[in-house]
Design a protein that fits this description.
The protein contains nine helices and seven strands; from the N terminus they run αβααβββαβαβαβααα. With 279 residues, the chain is α/β, with parallel strands linked by helices. The chain has a single domain, classed as SGNH hydrolase (Rossmann fold, 3-Layer(aba) Sandwich). Helix 4 runs parallel beside helix 5 and helix 5 runs parallel beside helix 6. The radius of gyration is 18 Å and the shape is globular.
Length: 279
């Protein structure tokens, strides 16, 4: 995809849709960019990308956790956000593990409440670093538990999209990388590739769609933040475009380009700013 999805396209595609986003800090920024895109053709600012747990972001609201509780880097951190307009509903749950008692409570929310039209989910880096020496094997078991239960809960028409974890730098620093697991950092970018391969195969076997963000961004590392984990606003708008393009394909919808008169001068700048180095 060489161009970004515009606000008018996003609003039309997600009209009367409930989009559920599950994951860590990268998925939180995915949620934020979608919330912003539904309202105007602007990029996330650096403070918006860096903020976590704020009471409100672009007319969304903090439902649980975040600044309503302790802002920690622990595996017990919670953050639930929701954006609601007349014709759009987006909800985000922060995850530190793909299956846990907390995930069971999320699944119970889905069982009793409104069923989503789209589920965008990923959980990997926390899973393979913060849960002891057997965490990779436990991650594989937990993926089975999650995939089997989510499939049984959502409707047949729900688009379930597993996004593979994005490339990590060899030298990283991040909230999940507490001192007791810092020794894992040098090999984590390779462990991530192994974990991505396994969960992509398993997600496909359970009938989930898979979006390989590791592949899409492998030559776009100039858009990765200095911490080696997170990504800039341009990367997140491209992720939104990939997500919405995938949904459009799944639903048989053609994303018509908006009329020239409705395109702002910044849209051309957006296309020029997104560059992929030659290999």
């Amino acid at each position: 995809m060489d161009t970004f999805v515009m606000q008018s396209q996003a609003r039309q595609l997600l009209h009367n849709k409930f989009v559920l986003v599950l994951g860590g800090s990268v998925q939180r920024s995915m949620y934020k960019d979608l919330v912003l895109l539904l309202q105007r053709d602007k990029f996330l600012t650096l403070p918006q990308l860096k903020s976590k747990g704020e009471f409100s972001f672009e007319q969304d609201r903090l439902v649980e956790g975040g600044r309503l509780g302790p802002l920690t880097n622990g595996t017990g951190y919670r953050e639930v956000r929701q954006y609601h307009s007349d014709h759009h509903l987006l909800r985000f749950y922060f995850l530190t593990r793909i299956y846990s008692p907390y995930m069971e409570s999320i699944l119970e929310d889905l069982r009793e409440g409104l069923k989503p039209d789209v589920v965008i989910v990923s959980s990997c880096v926390w899973d393979i670093t913060r849960y002891g020496p057997e965490c990779l094997e436990q991650y594989k078991e937990n993926l089975h538990k999650f995939f089997s239960q989510i499939k049984a809960l959502v409707g047949r028409d729900c688009l379930m999209l597993w996004t593979l974890a994005m490339p990590l730098a060899k030298k990283i620093k991040g909230g999940f990388l507490v001192p007791e697991v810092s020794h894992l950092a040098p090999s984590l970018c390779y462990d991530l590739i192994e974990a991505n391969f396994y969960c992509s195969q398993l997600a496909d076997a359970y009938g989930l769609d898979v979006l390989d963000l590791h592949f899409h961004f492998r030559f776009s590392l100039q858009h990765r933040m200095p911490d080696g984990v997170h990504w800039d606003a341009l990367a997140h708008r491209r992720i939104s475009s990939l997500l919405l393009g995938h949904a459009a394909d799944a639903w048989g919808v053609h994303l018509h380009a908006p009329p020239l008169s409705s395109r702002t001068s910044s849209s051309g700048l957006q296309r020029r700013l997104w560059t992929t180095p030659q290999t």
